[in-house]
Amino acid sequence: MSGVDDEKTPKGTNTGVTPVSIEQQCFDKNWILQLNEPKQFEHFICSICKQVANSPVELCCPQHKDIDESTIVGENCLKQFLKANSNSCPVQPHENIEYSRCAALQRHIGALNITCPLQFQQESQGQNQRNEVIVCDFKGEIKELNDHLNNVCPLKISNCWYKPFGCEYNCYKHKLNDHLSSEFKLHFDLVVKFIQTLQEEIKQLKSQIQMNENN
Q: At the N or C end, where does the chain have fewer CB atoms within 10 A?
């Protein structure tokens, strides 16, 4: 099994790891170590990113059933790896991988004690880039993380409701209502412009269809 010490991915291998939401990515070992001992999660390490596996799955391909190294990976890490490496197995290069979900491991990982990951990120960066003194004192278990981030955390950054119409503003969740109230005209104008653009596209499409029918 993989330990919790830093490990390197073999050269020439494309891990395919791209930025994903904090709810999907594997868990930072340094964050987990705040409230847990290494031995509590040393067997839960993702073989791809070397962090604590999120939604762990076990690779059970017959091509490497006898190897001693860990075949546990985070589900999202596996999806990204397969996409970036033509569906080749991350343990040994071959196609048609086989894997299964690890419910028992998920329960153990879900029971690890944690602080708020956004608070940890803020402290790790050494400053609050928004120049606001906002602290999240959440302490709980990993299985409670999604509910905390989606519904409670004061550090979660929210996009404006009108982002689909062109508003790029984002802010702490508790300040979103202030933005919505103060920028009513901006949002109204964005929606009107969006509808006008849509109407023009529909008009052009109808015109093109009519031209095709007449030819």
A: C
The closest alpha carbon to 187, from 210, 213, 169, belongs to 169
**Which long-range contacts does 113-116 make (Cβ < 8 Å, 24+ apart)?**
113/35, 113/36, 113/139, 113/140, 113/141, 114/31, 114/32, 114/34, 114/35, 114/139, 114/140, 114/141, 114/142, 114/145, 115/31, 115/34, 115/35, 115/139, 116/148, 116/153, 116/155
Q: Is 187 helix (H, G, I), strand (E, B) or coil?
A: helix
For residue 58, name the pLDDT band (cuts at 50, 70, 90). Answer: very high
pLDDT tens by residue, 162-205: 999 999 999 988 889 999 999 999 999 999 999 999 999 999 99
Domain segments of the chain: what residues?
29-110, 157-215
Q: How far is CA 25 from the centre of its chain?
A: 4
pTM: predicted TM-score of the whole model, two decimal places: 0.71
Note every long-range contact of 32-35, with CB atoms under 8 Å and residues 24 or more positions apart, other chains counting.
Answer: 32/112, 32/114, 34/114, 34/115, 34/120, 35/112, 35/113, 35/114, 35/115, 35/139
Superfamily of domain 29-110: Zinc/RING finger domain, C3HC4 (zinc finger) (3.30.40.10)
Cα–Cα distance measured from residue 178 to residue 169, given in angstroms and rounded to the nearest whole number? 12
Type of residue at 187? H
pLDDT tens, residue by residue, 104-139: 999 999 999 999 999 999 898 875 555 667 899 999
